[in-house]
Design brief:
InterPro entries: cNMP-bd_dom, cNMP-bd_dom_sf, Env_Response_Regulators, HTH_CRP, RmlC-like_jellyroll, WH-like_DNA-bd_sf, WH_DNA-bd_sf. GO terms for molecular function: DNA binding; DNA-binding transcription factor activity. This is CRP-like cAMP-binding protein. Keywords: DNA-binding, Transcription, Transcription regulation. The protein is an alpha+beta fold. Helices cover about 45% and strands about 20% of the residues. It has two domains: about 110 residues, Jelly Rolls, CATH 2.60.120; about 80 residues, Orthogonal Bundle (Arc Repressor Mutant, subunit A). It has nine helices and ten strands. Strand 9 and strand 10 form a beta hairpin. The longest helix is centred in the middle third of the chain and has 27 residues. The two termini are about 25 Å apart.
């Protein structure tokens, strides 16, 4: 086959040699994921894995009484749906596209076959699953012990790390992802804008002072970022 994969688009795929990429992407699709598109619901069997290029997908946990909160986000640093590599059980989370863009889509059967045959594919995906689990754990600690402003700053920083440029979100959407009231996000965004840390208008956020935004965040941001960074540095 002629491989049309472009380097620099997904960190997991970038870390693989071309021979493994040819096998892994033997029957892939480069798909456009639209904003608010649901890739799979909680309790649904996952049929595809997605390797984001410039989109971001949020994993959302929903309670029985209808409340929800983001537990992790996945950009070009990872893969959506990798749960199936460890268990054939239905997903525990809802996968929701929060930034539109492209992703490599691979069938469940194809990736399971290559996962068991190719050592480096096996290694990289298992390590990414470990990193994703770490992020979920830190986000759980963060929502329990850290202030909403710190969580909001962490959210903006991680989003910016995984997709450069303007951050496009309504306050209502951010509130839903963080599991808080919209008015809380409005107050926090107003304070950060008053301090010239961000500029927020018409659903778009520009980070003006990243260093101060990092200081207003919490150790969870550094822990999540460093976990991902150390993995890809080791793979380089």
């Amino acid at each position: 086959m002629t491989l049309s994969f472009q380097s620099g688009t997904n960190l997991i795929l970038d870390s693989l040699p071309e021979s493994d990429l040819v096998s892994l992407l033997n029957d892939y699709k480069l798909v456009k994921l639209e904003y608010a598109q649901v890739l799979y619901e909680s309790a649904e069997n996952i049929q595809h894995i997605y390797f984001p290029v410039d989109c971001i997908v949020s994993l959302i946990y929903e309670t029985l009484d209808g409340k929800s909160s983001e537990i992790a986000s996945i950009g070009n640093n990872g893969a959506v749906g990798c749960d199936i590599l460890l268990s054939d059980s239905p997903s525990r989370f809802r996968a929701l596209t929060i930034r539109s863009g492209l992703a490599y889509q691979i069938k469940k059967s194809d990736i399971l076959n290559e996962f068991n045959k190719l050592n480096l594919v096996h290694y990289q995906l298992k390590n990414y699953i470990h990193n994703l689990t770490t992020e979920i754990s830190f986000n759980g600690v963060c929502s329990r012990f850290h202030k909403i402003e710190q969580q909001f700053c962490k959210f903006l920083l991680l989003y910016n790390d995984r997709a450069s440029g303007k951050i496009s979100f309504t306050q209502e959407t951010i509130a839903q992802l963080l599991g808080v009231r919209r008015e809380t996000i409005t107050d926090i965004a107003s304070r950060l804008q008053k301090d010239n840390i961000i500029h927020y208008a018409r659903g778009e956020i520009d980070i003006l002072d990243r260093a101060t935004l990092v200081n207003r965040s919490c150790e969870c941001y550094h822990a999540i970022k460093n976990t991902m960074h150390s993995h890809y540095m080791a793979a380089a």
